[in-house]
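To whoever is on call:

I kicked off a structure prediction for a single chain this morning and the downstream step that reads the tokens threw a length-mismatch warning. I double-checked the sequence; it's 138 residues and nothing unusual in it as far as I can see. Pasting both halves so you can look.
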Amino acid sequence: MDEKSARSLYEQRINNLVESLLPNGAGTMTETRLRTALSQVAQVAFSAGESYALLSLLTVDDVAEQLGVSVRRVRAIAKIKHEQFGIGFQVPNTAQWLFRPSEIESLRPGVVGRPAKTQPTQRAADDGYAVRKNESEK
């Protein structure tokens, strides 16, 4: 169940209960009847939310495909990110990880390798910085 379907289910259930409790938009009800109705809505919302949360979990294979990296790389990143920030959940006694869709971007690997070496720039002597001269200028 996706988020849109879950919200639609909530709204439909609430509208049905309001109509049954207050026909034609008016009426009175007892505290017990209101509590019962609210309890029913809460149960439906909890069940739908639980289904949405469980069905939207992503595996290492799913994340690797979305990020365009290997499964092994995702597991390595997941271990580090979990230790630092609590991202992901490792299923006990397995190598399997589960992730929420909102955690995908935080698992995106950075640029691989050593940063490129940059040449120092020459600055004018009046900046207060020393000017580095090439061997040929000496």
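Update from on-call: the warning came from a stale cache, not from the record. Cleared it. Sanity check on the structure: Residues 90 and 96 are 6 Å apart (CA to CA).
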